[in-house]
């Protein structure tokens, strides 16, 4: 008998319409393609909002979406954007949110919880929902969320432990997350982040055209795609790269301050060879990747990135790009497929080496990328849920 029911509620920590898709949207879409009915719940707002333009805009957009009924975005996917009070470190507000959330969920979700799987990414899940109401509970832990700026650390630690101990199965996306969550449960399984190979490999097709705003940049292009936030990206490293080789161009594609509205990029904007192109539609990313001479993972090394498996890693490889990365624990096992560096000087020398022709063979990169896809990973997860005795 299958444990994963036909109807699945996905409690996300990312809004469906965020231009940079994460595990949450991709998993929802892949499950939907496999015939599951998905009720996708946008982020409930874990971080306390700040007094800044970005957070005010987000609150306004959520209020607008919150008064609407769930929206059908796919044959098998409905998206709901609940409006809650984003101050989860306050016990009274948490109780109000619990009542509000469950009342609205009952209104908009037609399925009986007893016949529904809960697939959650939210470490505060047990604050909002009673896990015993569902037929099966999956906790998909993809980040060390409490290491992000502005998070209510104490309540996150308490509730995530409760969730991990009581979920039927736990999936994690990095070896570090595996070690820490195994302390709370003996049913934790590691599946790295993956990529939509068919989508990103379009970068290799002759018909794919490099966008005009990228074609207008002369000289070698070193590219990064993702959230440009101070807790994730090492701005001093980027500054050093740009100054060491003025003939190189660093192209940054993404929203500045995603997850950290206090991010300040002034030191980068002073440099003429660093280009901020803004966020781009997911469909256009292979076109931009085609124009990259080198793809970068210039992350900070901290408690967040130590637990992170960069989503861009396999997306870059699927696009056939050579990658230079800082020393991230989660991708060390793949070190023969990219340049893994230990310090700023090594990082710059690795870029120099690639531009001089010392690159990993395209066939080798592609062979690896083809093995790490959403379809492959989701099938393995479903099999592990439904028939754990068959998984060795």
Structural account:
α12 crosses α14 (362-369). It contains 15 helices and 14 strands. The chain is α/β, with parallel strands linked by helices and 392 residues long. The strands form two sheets. An eight-stranded mixed beta sheet has the order 3-4-2-1-5-6-7-8, with helices on both faces. It has a six-stranded parallel beta sheet with strand order 11-10-9-12-13-14, sandwiched between helices. The mean pLDDT is 91.
Please provide a brief summary of the model.
The protein is α/β, with parallel strands linked by helices and 392 residues long. Helix content is 35%, strand content 15%. The chain contains 15 helices and 14 strands.
What descriptive keywords fit this protein?
14 strands, 6-stranded parallel beta sheet, 392 residues, single chain, alpha/beta
Q: Care to count the β-strands?
A: 14
**Poorly predicted residue ranges:** none
Structural class: alpha/beta
Average the pLDDT over all residues and give the rounded result: 91
Q: What is the CA–CA distance across the termini? A: 19 Å
What's the overall geometry? Answer: globular
Strand percentage? 5-15%
Taking all Cα atoms into account, the compactness measure Rg is 21 Å
- Biggest sheet record: 8 strands, mixed
Order of helices and strands: EHEHEEHEHEHEHEHHEHEHEHEHEEHHH
Helical residue percent band: 25-40%
For the largest sheet, list the strands in their spatial order. 3-4-2-1-5-6-7-8
Count every helix, treating DSSP H or I runs of 4 or more residues as helices.
Answer: 15
């Amino acid at each position: 008998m299958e444990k994963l029911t036909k109807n699945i509620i996905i409690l996300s920590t990312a809004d469906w319409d965020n231009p940079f898709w994460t595990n949450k949207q991709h998993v929802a879409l892949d499950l939907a393609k496999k015939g599951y009915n998905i009720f996708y719940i946008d982020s409930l707002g874990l971080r306390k909002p700040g007094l800044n333009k970005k957070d005010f805009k987000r609150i306004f957009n959520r209020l607008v979406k919150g008064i609407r009924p769930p929206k059908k975005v796919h044959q098998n996917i409905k998206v709901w954007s609940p409006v809650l009070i984003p101050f989860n470190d306050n016990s009274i507000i948490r109780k109000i949110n619990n009542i509000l959330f469950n009342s609205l969920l009952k209104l908009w979700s037609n399925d009986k919880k007893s016949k529904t799987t809960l697939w959650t990414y939210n470490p505060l899940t047990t604050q909002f929902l009673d896990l015993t109401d569902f037929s099966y509970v999956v906790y998909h832990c993809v980040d060390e969320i409490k290491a992000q700026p502005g998070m209510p650390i104490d309540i996150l630690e308490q509730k995530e432990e409760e969730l991990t101990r009581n979920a039927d199965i736990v999936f994690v996306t990095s070896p570090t997350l595996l070690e820490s969550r195994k302390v709370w449960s003996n049913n934790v399984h590691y599946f790295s982040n993956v990529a939509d190979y068919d989508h990103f490999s379009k970068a290799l097709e002759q018909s794919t055209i490099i966008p005009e705003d990228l074609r207008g940049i002369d000289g070698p292009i070193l590219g990064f795609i993702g959230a440009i936030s101070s807790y994730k990206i090492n701005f001093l490293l980027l500054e050093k790269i740009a100054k060491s080789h003025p003939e190189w161009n660093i192209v940054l594609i993404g929203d500045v301050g995603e997850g950290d509205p206090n991010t300040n990029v002034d030191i980068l904007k002073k440099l003429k060879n660093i280009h901020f192109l803004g966020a781009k539609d997911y469909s256009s990313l292979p076109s931009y990747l085609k124009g990259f001479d080198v793809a970068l993972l210039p992350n900070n090394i901290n408690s967040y990135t130590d637990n992170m498996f960069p989503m861009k890693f396999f997306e870059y490889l699927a696009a056939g790009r050579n990658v230079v990365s800082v020393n991230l624990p989660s991708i060390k096992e793949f070190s023969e497929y990219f340049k893994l560096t230990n310090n700023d000087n090594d990082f710059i020398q690795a870029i120099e080496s690639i531009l001089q022709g010392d690159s990993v063979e395209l066939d080798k990169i592609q062979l690896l990328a083809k093995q790490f896809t959403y379809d492959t990973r989701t099938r393995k997860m479903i099999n592990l849920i439904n028939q754990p005795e068959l998984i060795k």
